[in-house]
Design a protein that fits this description.
Elements: H1 2-10, H2 21-42, H3 68-71, E1 109-112, H4 119-125, H5 130-139, E2 154-159, E3 165-173, E4 176-183, E5 186-193, E6 197-206, H6 211-217, H7 222-231, E7 247-257, E8 260-274, E9 277-285, E10 291-294, E11 314-317, E12 320-324, E13 331-334, E14 337-340, E15 346-348, E16 353-361, E17 365-372, E18 376-386, E19 393-394, E20 399-403, E21 413-420, E22 423-425, H8 445-464, H9 467-473, E23 478-480
Parallel strand pairs: 6-23
Antiparallel strand pairs: 1-2, 2-3, 3-4, 4-5, 6-7, 7-8, 8-9, 9-10, 11-14, 12-13, 14-21, 15-20, 16-17, 16-19, 17-18, 18-20, 18-21, 21-22
Length: 481
Amino acid sequence: MQTFNKRLRGATPKGAQQPPLQHRHLLAIGVLSVFIAIAASLAPSGGVEANRAQEPGSVFTLGYDPLSEVIATPQMPAFEYPAAGPALAAADSLTPPPAAETQNKPLWSEQTVRSGDNLSLIFKRAGFSSADVYNVVNTAPEGKALSRIYPGQIIAFEAAEDGRLEAVKHIVSPLESVVYRRTDDSFSTERELRQTDLQESWVSAEITSSLFMAGQDAGLSHSLVMDLANIFGGVIDFVQDPRKGDTFNVVYEELYLDGEKYRDGTILAASFTNRGKTFNAFRYEDSNGDAGYYNEDGTSMRKAFLLAPVDFTRISSNFNMRRLHPIYKTTRPHRGTDYAAPTGTPVYAAGDGRVIKSGFTSANGNYLFVQHGEKYITRYLHLHKRKVKQGQRVSQGQIIGSVGSTGAATGPHLHYEFLVNGQHKDPRKIHRQLPKAKMLAAAEIPAFKATIANASQQLAALQSGNRLALNSEGTGTTAER
């Protein structure tokens, strides 16, 4: 203060009239207030920013900035003033960058197909018109395939900034998607396919009640159990043959997607021990690209006919030429085998052939006759439904109908007949007289032996209970139940 007074007195010209004392006090207070205000405006605020060390090249932040509450959003980082200099005073230097540069909008809007949906309803829910449906379906290659939709599938949409439809994605399955994308006034088609990762696994199980229950308890899916039955269906009658204590071992593939199991794959090798006799089967694809199952000698597991045309049922009536008919109460021949099973149980073609008759009578109900070559005919009676038509070719194991109780039947069952040169034969004994299974060509045997070598060792380890050998190979995980 003393310095201020000296400068003030020294600034007074010689001979000038001095103002009164109170006026001089007021003038000093006013000048002092101005200096205090200037000093306060240049001093840093008491916040965190004020305590930052002002290092060379660092950003200098002024006090409270009312824009900071708007700019500091999750979509855009808070704005910082530029380094000290003339630009500090420029209002333009306080303008934040455009928010659009840092915002990310979701590209796809998904709609789940509901029961009873059509494309127009789905497009409408997504905010698009019937004209958009027409353009996609009629201008895109394979665009009509988009109309083949099923409940639970996903249809996704991508829109432009002006709301115009840019692309449609049909997620057919976790492994397949089809994208229809706008190109000028039409749409293109792009198919996206994903690949699964394969992992080998194995199970060993003992039958205590049925093959199906043993497979289920071992962790096998229903489809894998059915595949196992089909592989050995030419040598084991799964309706009659399996016994408590029978065992089986299966080496199979599992398919993984994004680190999680997607579904079961193919059976690579399997063995089945029935009444002390062991049958082995190995999958092999020959030089023509045809895949099948063969025993260790290269003999096909696929016989000319299945031992039973249905799965996991019970025999309610055997072949009997002097059976008392349960409805007509008369003694008459029973020229086939009856398989009792729930209505709707699949019925398989016992062998390759052609449907020569398909119809309905009051005695037979719904029936099918299949011709196999020149000598053999199989007949299927009392069907609930027929799945094939007269004149149609069928292959062994193909579903041709389902078990029912139509015609003269006391309950749901399949009546199955087997004829050789027009003569009825016992379906459960005729297989001993049928041609033997085919073998691989001699030229295929070396490749076959090399292909099954690893699977053969795996089966041997499973049969001997040597799980350590399997685990050391790192081919999968043991699942024994």
